[in-house]
Amino acid sequence: MQELMLQVDKQAADQEANLEAELTTRLTLDMKSDSWLSKNIRPMTLIFMTLIVTILAF
Fold first, then answer.
1. What are 5-35's pLDDT values in tens digits?
2. Count of domains forming the chain
3. Predicted model pTM
4. pLDDT (mean) for 40-56
5. Given pLDDT bands bounded at 50, 70 and 90, which one contains residue 45?
């Protein structure tokens, strides 16, 4: 049973590392792009979501 748990933990850690690597690659490619939108879409989305939550909270 413990071997199974260790396997699951290892797979979860591998998956997390894979997701981090993909995110890093995506961000690197966005920064190399000449498009203003691709460099700023994530901050704009964060600002938009913050505004919507703030407006709907009141």
1. 999 999 999 999 999 999 999 888 888 888 8
2. 1
3. 0.55
4. 95
5. very high
CA distances (Å), origin 3, targets 9, 11, 49: 10, 12, 43
Residue 1 CA from chain centroid, whole number: 33
Name the phi and psi angles at 2, rounded to 5: -70, -35
Rounded to whole angstroms, the Cα distance separating 58 from 53 reads 9
DSSP 48: H
17 CB neighbour count, 10 Å cutoff:
10
Q: Which domain holds residue 28?
A: 2-57
Encoded tokens for 18: 């894979």
